[in-house]
Amino acid sequence: MAVLYSLRHRALATLRRYRARGTPFEALYDAPPPPLRAAFDDLRFVVLDAEMSGLNPTRHSLLSLGWVVIERGRIVGDSGRHFLIHADTRVGESTKIHGLRDSAIAGAASVARVLALLAAQAQGAVLVFHHAALDIAFIQRAAVQTVRCPLLAVYLDTMEIEKRRLRRQGKSASLRLKLCRDRYGLPATAQHNALSDAYATAELFLAQVAYLGDRGRLRLRDLYPVGVS
Amino acid sequence: MVGEIPEITGFIRTCPPFDKAEEEALTKLVRHLSVSYHKSGDTIDLAGGDPDFYLIRSGSVEIRASDNQLVDRLSAGDGFGHACELASGNRHHLATVLEDCLLYVIPPAVIGDLRQTDANVDSFFKREKLAHCGDREVDTDRDYQLGQRVGDIVTRAAVCAAQDMSVAAAARLMTRERVSSVVVVDSERLVGVVTDRDLRTRVLAANLPPATQLHRVMTPEPQFVTSASRLHDAQLTMMSANIHHLPVIEIDAGVQRPVGMLTTNDLLLAQNSQPLFLIKSINRCRDAAAVARVAEKLPALIQKLIKADARVEDIGRIITSVTDAMTTQLLRLAEQQLGQAPVPYAWLAFGSQGRQDQMLGADQDNALLIDDSAGPGDDDYFTELARFVCDGLHRCGIRYCPGDIMATTPRWRQSLSQWQQYFARWIDEPSAKALMHACIFFDLRHIFGAKDLTQRLTEFVHTRARKNSIFLAGMTENALGHRPPLGFFKTFVLERDGNHEPVLDLKHRGTIPIVDIARIYALSAGIDAVNTMDRLRGLEDHNELSAGDIHNLLDAHEFIARIRIENQGEQLAQGREVTNSLNPKMLSPLVRHQLKEAFAVVQSCQQGMKMGFGGGAL
Asked: Which pLDDT does position B155 carry in this prediction?
């Protein structure tokens, strides 16, 4: 059974790699994802936040994407990126219809370009979200629409880490980003955009890691990776 | 698409010295910076060759130098690590996180570059170096107090209430126990806290019935400290959460069992306990030289109290209690050296020590009261004892009495019956000399030894003096010799001091007249308090002096004493001799005016006293 599963898994992986050929995700599909035994300090994390026009991935679209990078357990000071995205996800048509003028005025980029930049960052890294399911759904839908294959990455959810911590303590409390941060004594943040929220999530993630035990011995599997998608 | 994270840049822009840095320099700083999170208790080793510079975004840390001396406590906006060298050449050695910290870490090279290009940043780091040197003494002092364990200062047991108790019952419990908060427990386990304010805001203002159960209005899962935590941790917790009540728990088989409640007031008291520490260390001294060394710290403490605007009455009591402790410890040491006294005795204090309003620069006024059973051979022992103690006090900065009113003088080292004769003579035959003695010896207080001896003497004195109108008239006349320094047109009457400078003598012209007034009225009313303020307050229950006069005198006393002690604090700070003389030109017009008003109060009370008890012409 295990052998069959393994074969099927490999076959699918090869198929996926084949599909990703020539897309911005090619390198991502070729590089193996970090193993579960990888030590926290050796890992590179891309902490992301997305803003959407609504909560339904089939009807609404990505408006902006922001991220910061954590390396050797620290947020990298100049790793912050913030992209406004064309409201229309069908990038090809949108350029035809609106031309470049609108987007240039708005300072917005096409979703394909943003995803390509993200893919470059995500290579060999672990993605981190607060409430991953929603953001992932939007990103993958956009990826499939524009690149024709999903973003391949291991990702974590700070909400999940928090939920487990509270459950272990026999508590239940709000999992909203601000309230989670309050519990770790993190300062209040003024702005709310994708970059600010990504940065706020990164701080929360570092705080959570500090409370998960000896950082030197912490491995990826201890951080409840949600999965490879 | 930007590289900078606005949160980071925004914060750095508010922190000196970076607040004045060029945009370009700031961009460079942010580009090389990283952010890390550290849990309370974590340490950051700064001893290595060239440590990073850390800017605290949130939380707090404690910095120690290589000799493990506490250098500083830092919080949001402060920096440490690289380039934070101390004047002593000591470097920041170890940072311990007191409160979970978010730190911006800046590599040393970036700070180095910035110092090269930005003179402002460079001078900041140079200044930092100097600043830490001055702070050191103060900080170790504070460290001493806030380093205490919570368990040591929380004395009363926690007032606990079950979570199903009604708010009405809790309110009654709190009233009965005289506390402003209760700990809510679920079979001994801490589950919440209810404070006075909660009863107001969550019960009364919310219109809840008195039968509401506590768990509905309590603050659930409150912050807490363990009795083993340090006070500064508790203080930080309270400050950061903005709460005034912190349950103290002990973890017992995994159960958080409340053992007390720490309030902001407890913390305040703990921090103001410097005199207590001084007294405690006096009590630990093994010889007279050690006592003298501890006594050296008193002036600095008094200066601090003056700066902290402590009430002069309290300062007087503090100085006196330290003097008392020195006297007591010297007596204990003397007894260790000379052996047990052959007969019971009491050590008495007079004058300002007796009245508990000692100021700096006071001299000794003491005496020995010996049991009547003493034989002629016993005086040798007491001579030695007196010499040991008086010499010791002199070395502690409490000078020998110029008028020899000390236990070393044979006349003031007498048996109870002899002392009773002294007082009887002063009271019955009030000569000028007798009245002068009476003024000193009537302010008598027991310091050490057989208390019943002192008691028998004071009882004798009070029954004898009370209603003895000739004696009181004599005392009044004597007291009128000390007039407030006010001329006919409310101008100051100045005296010449040693340097022939015109000065006001605040002690003899200001404090002493009030002390005299209080003493005479207290003797007349049979009040056995010795402290001037206590005497005046005690007079409120008698008809001798009007309530208005009493309050005016209390205010005048505090005001004059305040000016006197501030003047002394200044003299001390300038390294000059501590005196009671003040050049009125140094005072602001308003204070001069108030001082004249205070003197006028004394003047009118002196007149009233003259009317009441007779005495010489005024």
From this structure: 64
Q: What is the mean predicted confidence (pLDDT) over A175-194? A: 85
B127 — pLDDT class (breaks 50, 70, 90): low
Summarize the confidence of residues B356-384 as an average pLDDT: 89
Confidence of residue B156 (pLDDT cuts 50, 70, 90): low
Q: Give helix then strand counts, H and E, for chain B.
A: 25, 20
Across the interface, do A75 and B102 touch by the CB < 8 Å criterion? no
**3 state DSSP class of A71:** strand
Considering chain B, what is the average pLDDT of its residues? 82
Neighbours of B348 (CB within 10 A): 26
Residue type, B299: P
CA distance B99 to chain A (A): 9
Q: In sequence order, which residues have a C-beta less than 8 Å from that of residue B437 and are 6 or more positions away?
A: B422, B426
Cis peptide before B17 (omega within 30 of 0): yes
Q: Do B5 and A211 touch (CB under 8 A)?
A: no
Does residue B193 register a pLDDT over 70?
yes
Indicate the SS3 state at residue B594: helix
pLDDT above 60: residue A94: no
- Establish if B3 touches chain A: CB-CB under 8 angstroms: yes
Residue B585 vs residue B166, higher pLDDT: B166
- Judged by a CB distance cut-off of 8 A, whether residue B44 touches chain A is no
HEC letters along A28-59? HHHCCCCCCCCEHHHCEEEEEEEEECCCCCCC
What band does A208 get if pLDDT is binned at 50, 70 and 90? Answer: very high
Average pLDDT over residues B439-467: 87
B410 φ/ψ angles, rounded to the nearest 5 degrees: -55, -35
Which domains, ranges and CATH numbers included, belong to chain A? 2-228 (3.30.420.10)
Q: Which domains does chain B have, with CATH numbers?
A: 6-135 (2.60.120.10), 150-268 (3.10.580.10), 274-464 (3.30.460.10), 473-613 (1.20.120.330)
**Among chain B residues, CA nearest to A185:** B100
**CB-based contact B6 A185, cutoff 8 Å:** no
Residue type at B220 in one-letter notation: P
Residue pair A58/A141 in contact (Cβ under 8 Å)? The answer is yes
Tokens of B589: 């017009």
pLDDT at B273: 54
Q: In this structure, how many other beta carbons lie within 10 angstroms of the beta carbon of residue B328?
A: 18
The answer to whether residue B10 neighbours chain A at the CB level (below 8 Å) is: yes
Q: How far apart are the CA of B196 and the nearest CA of chain A, in angstroms?
A: 25
| Shortest alpha-carbon distance between residue B265 and chain A (Å) | 25
Closest of B313, B314, B283, B320 to residue B298, by C-alpha: B320
CA distance A125 to chain B (A): 18
Mean pLDDT of B380-398: 92
Distance (Å, rounded) from C-alpha B177 to C-alpha B193?
Answer: 16
CA nearest neighbour of B129 among B218, B225, B40, B65: B65
Decide if B7 touches A, using CB distance below 8 A: yes
Residues 6+ apart with CB under 8 A from B244: B195, B238, B263, B264
CB spacing of A191 vs B59 below 8 angstroms: no
Q: Is the model's pLDDT at B391 over the cut of 90? A: yes
Closest chain A residue by Cα to residue B1: A82
